[in-house]
Design brief:
InterPro entries: DUF6503. Helices cover 26% and strands 40% of the residues. By secondary structure, the protein is α+β, with helices and mostly antiparallel strands.
């Protein structure tokens, strides 16, 4: 017996709905299993492709202007020059009436305070000035502004298993990173946008069981030397969400 028009339409709608349900289930399963299927190294490559599509970090030679805002303190304004091919780094930071300058040129280190490079040991001690601190600044800025590319450095251990986490109400694909003991002891988590692979959060622990350490929220971007760098980095304690401050790339 032939079906009437209404029956044909009902069957057609039912078939269409069934296809939609199947497609939705398939997409859902694909999203859920993505983090299980992709390896940590593949995720890192996708993130690097987003942030540094032309591989410019290896030859980075540019200047960063950064304003650090912290509660109850004057802003710290820093001018930072990084020249990776020449192994050169300099930072000139001004907060209030104090200006410190550190320069590292390969193995040579120079320090100046309020424009004076002929410093007594008393002034150095009083203002915590040392070549050791100069190298700390160099490592700090080249690491943070070289992410995620710096995760390919020697001694970096990429967890092969990618995780999926919800952080502050948003879903991310997450890369866990540890380091050889000679490089560092902290455990880091890098949170990437599951659609674009943009790095939007990172977090570190000294002892994860104690929920110590900090997390950093990244918002907006600024392109420098062809690299998409986070414009704003807001720092918080893991344990209580206490706000520490924000670095702004001007």
């Amino acid at each position: 017996m032939l079906c009437d028009e209404n029956t044909i339409l009902e069957q057609s709608n039912a078939t269409h709905m069934l296809k939609s349900v199947i497609i939705s289930i398939f997409l859902c399963i694909s999203t859920i299993t993505f983090a299980q299927e992709v390896s940590g190294k593949v995720l890192l490559e996708k993130a690097i492709q987003y942030h540094d599509p032309n591989g410019n970090w290896e030859t980075f030679n540019d200047t960063l202007h950064i304003t650090m805002k912290t509660p109850k303190n004057p802003d710290r304004v820093s001018i930072i020059h990084i020249n990776l091919p020449d192994e050169y780094f300099s930072v000139k930071a001004t907060r209030g009436e104090k200006t410190t300058e550190y320069t590292i040129a390969k193995d040579r280190c120079a320090i100046a305070f309020n424009g004076n490079s002929n410093l007594s040991e008393e002034i150095k001690k009083e203002n915590n000035l040392s070549c050791e601190r100069a190298h700390l600044y160099k490592n700090y800025y080249t690491y943070l502004y070289g992410l995620p590319m710096k995760l390919k450095d020697e001694g970096t251990l990429i967890d092969p298993k990618v995780q999926r986490k919800t952080f502050k109400g948003k879903e991310y694909i997450v890369l866990k990173v540890t380091y050889n003991e000679s490089v560092g002891k902290d455990t880091w988590y890098f949170y990437f946008n599951p659609k674009t692979y943009a790095m939007e959060v990172y977090q570190f622990f000294k002892d994860e069981s104690k929920n110590d350490g900090e997390y950093i929220l990244l918002t907006d971007e600024k392109v420098i030397n062809g690299i998409k760098m986070p414009k704003n980095r807001a720092w918080y304690y893991n344990k209580d969400d206490g706000y520490l401050g924000t670095d702004i790339l001007n």
